[in-house]
Amino acid sequence: MLALVALGVALLAATALPYVGFLALYAWVRPSGSPAAKRPSEPTVSVVLPTYNEARIVENKLRDLVALDYPMEKVEIVVVDSSTDETPDLVESFFADRDAPASTLIREGDRRGLARALNDGYAAAENEIIVKTDCDARLAPDALREAMANFADPAVDGVTGRNAEVLGGSEVETDYRGIQSHIQTLESHLDSTFIFHGPFSAFRREAVVPIDPGSLADDSELALRIRRNGGRVVFDPAVAYMEAAHSAFAKRRKQKDRRAMGLVRLLVQQRDALGRHGRYGRVVLPFNWLFMLVSPWLLATGLAALVLGAVTTAGVAGLALPAALLAFVAAGSRDVLGPFQPFYALFDAQVSLLSAAVRLPLTST
Ligand code: GDP
User: Fold this and answer.
1) Number of C-alpha atoms within 13 angstroms, CB side, residue 277?
2) Could you tell me the strand order of the sheet in which 156-167 lies?
3) pTM of the predicted model, to two decimals?
4) Which residue in 65, 178, 275, 306 has the most C-beta neighbors within 10 A?
5) Closest C-alpha to 44, from 131, 138, 139, 133
6) Residue ranges of the alpha helices (H) in 151-215?
7) Of the ranges 210-224, 248-262, 324-338, which one carries the lowest mean pLDDT score?
8) Are 233 and 285 in contact (CB under 8 A)?
9) Which segments of the chain are extended strands (E)?
10) ipTM score above 0.95
11) CB atoms < 10 A from the CB of 310, how many?
12) Which numbered atom of ligand 1 lies nearest the CA of 113?
């Protein structure tokens, strides 16, 4: 049964191939920073903030927004709210005696889902650039300024930023974001990036189109649609934000699984973009397909073959292998894993992607 072990090892090695390919391409292209021709620029900005029962943090969020290093006369804040708590009242009183920035509060009445709320918020926004941000994310003071410098490049229609710090102390999440930041820099230099982040996404208003009301990956879907319409959407690591990620295992899994599900569904729904739209369809999307849809299955079958092979080859002693693997999964902490932590972060992401792929047929429309 050594053949099974060999098959397992081969499949696991294949799992790493997209990442190894990425490293090789990265070394060749040597991308750094945003690929846009950045110049200081101060377009008018509509910040769209969706809120659902955020009474605890909404005032802090608004305070952070109005304190950003940007002329507030050029900013409008559009809050789209579907809360059952006092969030909308807090928003209203926050802006009651403030001249700038201008504000609009859309009270939705019923909760109709984030994608619908965003479509309404984007439709109501009046300024040149639309910035979408989440309530539980904090933007760096110069985030808006850095992002707007990208729009001085007429080819750029969308900009997303880097998670500089994961609030809540999740080490796995911090490491994963580090890897993701490199991937997105390379994608942006090749053409455009696939994933847009909820804490900070900016779009040229005239490029914005409605997204699928059932979307679970709203920001990435809008970016993808804009790229498909001929725009360029880039990642700029100089645009920094801090996002709250849950460090409690169950909560983190739930948040990560939902995101994975949104992205996997988006890739499948938009599969006809593969091979089209320049390097975006020829390199960026295939890489994301490999990483998000193919690798998780290779990982699952590889692990199963390896464990089965070890047990059938070495009997009870073979159980040491699955035990070691389990210990690896359970560890998940920098103290224990040291330099192997990034591999754990990748593994962790693959587990979410696998669980998304398994549930996909049940949720597809
Ligand atoms: P996560 O960051 O991906 O875990 O998503 P969240 O649940 O934190 O939601 C992101 C932002 O959208 C937050 O500011 C929420 O308050 C807001 N939000 C979530 N669901 C809804 C909704 O159904 N309607 C509206 N208007 N806002 C929502």
Assistant:
1) 26
2) 102-107, 75-81, 45-51, 129-132, 201-204, 156-167, 232-244, 137-139
3) 0.91
4) 306
5) 131
6) 171-190
7) 324-338
8) no
9) 45-51, 75-81, 102-107, 129-132, 137-139, 156-167, 201-204, 232-244
10) yes
11) 23
12) 23
**Residue type at position 40:** P
Instruction: Give the residue whose CA is nearest to atom 16 of ligand 1.
Output: 51
Please identify, by atom number, the ligand 1 atom nearest to the C-alpha of residue 259: 3
291-309 pLDDT per residue, tens: 899 988 898 899 889 888 8
Residue 68 in contact with residue 141, Cβ under 8 Å? yes
Residue 331 pLDDT class (50, 70, 90 cuts): low
CA of 50 to the centre of ligand 1 (A): 6
CB 168 within 8 A of CB 247: yes
**198 within 8 A of 136, measured Cβ to Cβ:** no
| β 102-107/156-167 pair status | unpaired
Structure confidence by residue, pLDDT tens digits, 231-289: 999 999 999 999 876 666 677 777 788 888 999 999 999 999 999 999 999 999 999 99
173 CA to middle of ligand 1, Å? 19
